[in-house]
Amino acid sequence: MIPEIGHYALVLALLLAIVQSSVPMIGAARGNAAWMELGRTAAYGQLLMVGTAFAALTYAYVVSDFSVLNVVQNSHSAKPMLYKVSGVWGNHEGSLVLWVLMLALFGAAVAWFGGNLPPSLKARVLGVQGMIGVGFLIFMLATSNPFIRVFPVPADGNDLNPLLQDPGLAFHPPFLYLGYVGFSLAFSFAAAALIEGRVDPAWGRWVRPWTLVAWSSLTLGIGMGSWWAYYELGWGGWWFWDPVENASLLPWLAGTALLHSAIVVEKRDALKTWTVLLAILTFTLSLVGTFLVRSGVLTSVHAFAVDPERGVAILILLLLATGGGLLLYAMRASSLKVGGLFAPVSREGALVLNNLLLSVACAVVLIGTLYPLLLDSMTGQKISVGAPFFNATFVPLMIPLVAVMAVGPLLAWKRGDLAGALGRLKFAALVTVVCVLWALYINGVKPVMALVGIAMAAWAFFGAVAELADRVKLFRIPLGQSWDRAKGLPRGAWGTTLSHAGLGIAIAGMVGTSAWLTEDIRVMNIGDTASVAGYEFTLEKVESGRVDNYTTETGTFLVSSGGDFVARLHPEQRWYPVARMETTEAAIHTTFYSDLYAVLGDRSEQGEGWVVRIYHHPLVPWIWFGAIVMVLGGLVSLSDRRFRLGVPVRRAAKAPAAAAQPAE
Amino acid sequence: MPRLILFVPFALFLVLVGYFAVGLTRDPSELPSALIDQPVPQFELPPVQENGQGLATADLKGGVQLVNVFASWCAPCRIEHPLLMRLAKEEGVTIHGIAYKDKPQDSQRFLAQLGNPYQRIGADLDGRIGIEWGVYGVPETYIVDAEGRIRYRHVGPLMPFDLDEKILPLIRELQK
Predict the structure, then answer these.
(1) Which uninterrupted H or E stretch holds A147?
(2) C-beta separation of A57 from A147 below 8 A
């Protein structure tokens, strides 16, 4: 009964989405307030219905209802409750329900918080959001219905892929989706603005908080995903340039660019057509990511639900959404009024450069991800493009990006003083040089790229700190007054500082572990000691055990350094009988500036001892610490009260129609 | 701004969709049809170990054999490795390896630690032979019949159910 309620709720949600996508649109065109207002009701109703469907599916998982095919395929009665629940979105059908739930959530959020939007714009945003909902709900009901029953009812299920039975993975897809789907609002705002034929600073101010929500969630999701790969897959790496990872990086890069260009729209009324295009493209990349992961066009270590039929459906969705958006753009963008002027050296100029570099980086990742597909369709050759391609193309683009990142916020709008800005970064430059010399002293000249990387990290971090210090006039006025200034700074300024500093921290982590990693793979017996990067690892014992739905072999390592106790590590091998799969649980000891990472492998060929992998990862925790600081920056910016104020500034004073202003 | 420029993103997007559509018509988990049931490509690879045997076209005749493309840097290869060991030891299947874009010393260390299920291993240092075979990514596994024709291709790590449901039944059938 409950699954039928869920199924029925999805159908009702589709009907409501159809209402939401049409009635407010027509209302906005005709100026009918009641019709426009219906968009809000429909958005709430859609959220309620999709929420009901999601709850019904979750219920089926929680009670292990094996009359539902989706539960049979992805769950098992002996599975811990946490993974029964996370199993809901650990598969194609369920993750689509989560996706649509978020879509409805964002729609309802606009209906709820959009009180300060002009009614016609709000109606159109909700309308476009409704259209996306219609597409996804039809897709789900037609090709990926999670509520299909099976008969006869099997005794038990097939279990969730054990690799996915991990807290990191249980919670990273929801954040990833929150990010992907969050960009749908930027898309809806862009489409609505094109239909209205108007983008003004107020539009930038409405789009930005929603983009910030999406960007922060996506950053957190990507961070959690790479953390999961790092500790769960047991191969000691954290980023693989795998198509699925790239699928989340693409909208992140475009979203980061959008976040910055929307500032220019808001503050300076410039870059409007570009920002609108970027909003369309960012959501497109979210959809492309979905397409790549689910269609079977690209195979990947962790692509799931590979099914060409679904691929066709997503491709049609992509064609309608993005094709429609871009066609609308092509026809209407020229009606957007051109905004303010600025010199190349200015805050706007720096943000344009930021956008160029991020867009090129995005294109590079897209090409690297799609190249195998293109080659296949042209010549029939099947190849894969690996990390070397991305390291050779992506990294060089990040160097100027970081270089400009510290300078940009110090430049004035419209016409900046580059010498002055650089002058105020003297301290940051000095500390950067010290950091590089320090790295040189500890690790030597090789690899040279590592020194460049450390310079980037330090410049990003101390540049952000210097900018903040400059704003509060640190050491130039009494400390008390600086403190007062700091308290008075807009939250957005704090957000910028935090995010930029967080990126610096993360870069340091990436560089440290890529360049100075020490790895040792060997066979160890009980009592053996291995020495890695100045630490002694002694294998004390290996014990067998049984937990819930798997059996374990747990090793105990005593780690010491120069005779002093450092830690005891307990890496584990797990065997999941239902899925007939083995997983490794790495044991990680984290200190402030490095990770000690141990993996217990199989018994060795000769029957004595275990294959053991030990890593020393310098600075690796900083990757995720940096990501958290970036997300924190996003959240602090989001709390800026400017975003919650009505924005009547320019709406009242309409610019004279033919004010001659050169192109942006 | 000339209005035509505004259509450029739309046009580029259509090209992209076209490529996706073409990509969809191909199933990446199958070989390009041209290679299925065709003789294995002509190739000759040097050995990974100094005193070991390399791998060449001529070695793949006379008996049903598996060719597994692997690399020490590939995480899923480690996951599927115990299954290859099981195939070689318990099922008595002949497995040859192609070490794809891997330094010989890294391959050697990989095998020394995890065990060596391969009879012969060819070192495909620059990935050229991988292209000949149509290797899409590692790991990848091919079944070659007694006449040296490719009969099956598996992309990605082998899972226990792949062995039981596809690989072993097909090997048994080909051996008849």
Answers:
(1) none
(2) yes
The interface pTM score, or ipTM, of the predicted complex is 0.78
H or E element, residue A489: none
Test A373 with B19 for CB contact under 8 angstroms.
Answer: yes
Q: For chain B, give the number of residues.
A: 176
* B75 reaches A (C-beta below 8 A): yes
Task: For residue A586, give the 3-state DSSP assignment.
Answer: coil
pLDDT tens digits along A445-472: 778 888 999 999 999 999 999 999 888 8
User: Which of A284, A291, A306 shows the shortest C-beta gap to B20?
Assistant: A291
Please indicate whether, in this complex, the C-beta atoms of A376 and B23 are within 8 angstroms of each other: yes
Q: Between A58 and B106, where is the model more confident?
A: A58
Identity of residue A418: L
> How would you label A48-59 residue by residue, b for 16+ Cβ within 10 Å and e otherwise?
ebbbbbbebbbe
Cβ contacts of B28 on chain A, cutoff 8 Å: 296-299, 376, 382
Rounded to whole angstroms, how far apart are CA atoms A350 and B116?
56
Distance CA B95, CA A136 (A): 45
**Cβ separation B34–A380 shorter than 8 A:** yes
Report DSSP letters for A396-447, one per residue: HHHHHHHHHHHHGGGSPSSS--HHHHHHTTHHHHHHHHHHHHHHHHHH-S-S
Contacts of A318 in chain B (CB under 8 A): 17, 20
Element (H, E) at A238: none
Name the most confidently modeled range: A138-142, A545-549, A608-612: A138-142
pLDDT of residue A251 exceeding 60, the answer is yes
Which two structure tokens, joined as six digits, stand for B125? 């240092």
User: DSSP states of B15-60 as a string?
Assistant: HHHHHHHHHHTS-TTS--GGGTTSBPPP-EE-BSSTTS--EEGGGG
Yes or no: say if A14 and A134 are a contact pair by the CB < 8 Å rule. yes
pLDDT below 70 — which residues of chain B? 1-2, 23-35, 136-137
Q: Whose CA is closest to A664, among A346, A397, A259, A192?
A: A346
pLDDT for A137-179, tens place per residue?
A: 999 998 889 998 888 888 787 766 676 677 767 778 889 889 9
| CA atoms lying within 13 Å on the CB side of residue A321 | 34
Which amino acid makes up residue B143? Answer: I
**Test the A interface: residue of B4, B24, B73 with most A CBs within 10 Å:** B24
Interface of B with A in 106-125 (CB under 8 A): 109, 113-116
**CB nearest to A296's CB, from B10, B19, B27:** B27
B17 touches chain A (CB under 8 A): yes
Q: Do B75 and A333 touch (CB under 8 A)?
A: no
- Quote the CA–CA distance of A315 and A309 in Å, as a whole number: 10
Nearest to A70 by CA among A145, A174, A164, A7: A145
Q: What's the burial of B159, exposed, middle or buried (CB within 10 Å: 0-12/13-18/19+)? A: middle
DSSP letter assigned to residue A593: S
Q: Which residues of A touch B101 (CB under 8 A)?
A: 386
- Which residues lie across from A524 on neighbouring strands? A610
Nearest-Cα distance to chain A for B2, in Å, is 9
Alpha helix segments (H runs only) across B58-167: 75-89, 104-114, 128-133, 160-162
Contacting residues for A222 by C-beta, under 8 A, at least 6 apart: A176, A179, A245, A248, A249, A252, A627
DSSP A321: I
- Does the predicted model carry a pTM greater than 0.90? no
Is A579 in contact with A156 (CB distance < 8 Å)? no
Residues of chain A neighbouring B27 (CB-CB closer than 8 A) = 296, 308
Asked if residue B156 lies in contact with residue B75, where contact means CB atoms within 8 angstroms, the answer is no
Contact residues on chain A for B114, CB-CB shorter than 8 A:
601-602, 605, 611
